[in-house]
Amino acid sequence: WTFQIRKGVPFHKGWGELTAVDVKYSIERGMDLNSIAGPSSQLGRAD
């Protein structure tokens, strides 16, 4: 995939301008199986 990051897009809660580094971190964190933000966090609890 190729992403085009527009200049001047504000990051969450005034943390500055969104960068490619921010996007890369978010994608990698979301794919990390050991992260609380990883894919397993999207699954409901099975009883």
TrEMBL record:
Residues 1-43 form the Solute-binding protein family domain. Transmembrane segments: none annotated. InterPro entries: SBP_5_dom. This is Solute-binding protein family 5 domain-containing protein.
